[in-house]
Amino acid sequence: MKKTYTGSCHCSAVSFETDIDLSTGTNKCNCSICTKTRNWNAIIKPDEFRLLAGESELNDYQFGPKIGHHLFCRHCGVRSFARGYVEEIGGYYVAVQLASLDNVEPQELISAPIRYADGCNNDWENSPKEIRHL
């Protein structure tokens, strides 16, 4: 069941509201950026995400094929969400960092299924052999 969550960066310059059904699954990956940032996200459609404040406070980092916009607050450095387009996952998306949700209960996160992707080997449909460090 979808629930409306609020979220923000550490300094609250960036804030948002989003509709997420955590029971449909969350994501972790072992690619270079996900490993270094300890990424744990929920991928949603853009119409399920509303940026309330801070568009002008966001910096954008892109790498590789530059299909994703890894956004972060220019003041505190926290990555609250990313935006992009990947045909294989349904086109335009927003990837909400679960750690940036302000009103999520620990039990909701504990209960959320996690999908692991082997981005390190560009084998996105399969889980890596080792996931304990993700």
Topology (SSEs and partners):
Layout: E1 3-8, E2 15-20, E3 26-29, H1 32-37, E4 41-44, E5 49-53, E6 58-61, E7 68-73, E8 81-86, E9 91-97, H2 106-111, E10 114-117
Parallel strand pairs: 3-10
Antiparallel strand pairs: 1-2, 2-5, 4-9, 6-7, 7-8, 8-9
Brief sketch in words of this structure:
The chain has 134 residues and is mainly β.
- Helix and strand pattern: EEEHEEEEEEHE
Architecture per CATH nomenclature, i.e. the level-2 architecture = Beta Complex
Mean pLDDT reading: 96
The coarse overall form would be: globular
Helical run tally: 2
Instruction: Give the N-to-C terminal Cα separation.
Output: 26 Å
Please, could you describe this protein's structure?
The chain is mainly beta and 134 residues long. It has one domain: Metal Binding Protein, Guanine Nucleotide Exchange Factor, Chain A (Beta Complex). Helix content is 9%, strand content 39%. Strands 4-9-8-7-6 form a five-stranded antiparallel β-sheet, with no helix packed on it. Strand 8 and strand 9 form a beta hairpin.
What are the main properties of this structure?
mainly beta; 3-stranded antiparallel beta sheet; 134 residues; 2 helices; globular; single chain
